[in-house]
Amino acid sequence: MTRKELEIKEKLIIKNIKILAKELRKTPTKREYLKKYGNPQFEDVGGFSLMLEKAGFVRNKYNNLSNEDIERVFKEYIKENGVPISHKFPKTLPSYDLVCSRFGSYKEFLNLLGYDTLEKSYTKDEVVKLLQKGIDSGVIKSIIDLSKENYPVPATIYKILNTKGWKDTLKLINREL
What we know:
Blueprint (H helix, E strand, L loop, with lengths): L2 H22 L5 H8 L10 H7 L12 H15 L14 H8 L2 H8 L10 H13 L17 H8 L4 H7 L5
């Protein structure tokens, strides 16, 4: 690729980052960029983080942490707050994308930290009480409501409770909807 082509590519990426940031009302992640615009081969222009900087945004402060430091940050967080759900990472932690790029997947990362999967952060009794409370309070009106609050995903619930589906789960926890 010629120098001129690289400059054009870089300008287009920067323009797209700014447009996406306005749409999202936040600094876009690499994943969000890829979903909207596809992969422009960031390595040709110095990487996504460099393009963010050139577009006027702050890079992920965790990018420069070693893998051991990322593990330490997560272990400290988990002691205080429990295992974070992959689609609801708090801003105080390295991003889901960074964890996956460094460790292969979130599940592999949790295994490295000593967790089999997210299921290990819930006991059977905790899940039963959590669901009963959600149903009794009116927060859970259907299985769809599990995604609105901080509940385990249905597959995790079924695995922990050893149930075959939502109806089976409701029967086990002695609730109806």
